[in-house]
Design brief:
Layout lengths: L1 H16 L2 E5 L2 E14 L3 E11 L12 E6 L4 E12 L4 E8 L1
Antiparallel strand pairs: 1-2, 1-4, 2-3, 3-6, 4-5, 5-6
InterPro entries: Phage_Head-Tail_Connect_sf
Amino acid sequence: MFDAALRRLNAAAARRLANGVATLQGRDVLGHFDAEYAEALDYASGRRPVFQCDAAALPALPFEGDAISIQSTGGVPLFTGVIRRVEPDGAGWLVLWLQEL
């Protein structure tokens, strides 16, 4: 019962908060894409792209090195690269840290 409610909540959140569509494992997955600017100790800086999505929208957990492309919900290309790190958030969502090709 709780699992079904959590899946419905996560699906509703994905529909409401999505700003991107990732093509991953042969599927289009709604989620939130962010490529924020980051600095490290005033020495190095750059973009830190992240995609967050509902784990239930995928047939299996993605792996590091899997290809991913992301476009806006309006169809504008935003990102092409690979998954660098996969972090389940404990509530049914995945945080995918990305690396551009």
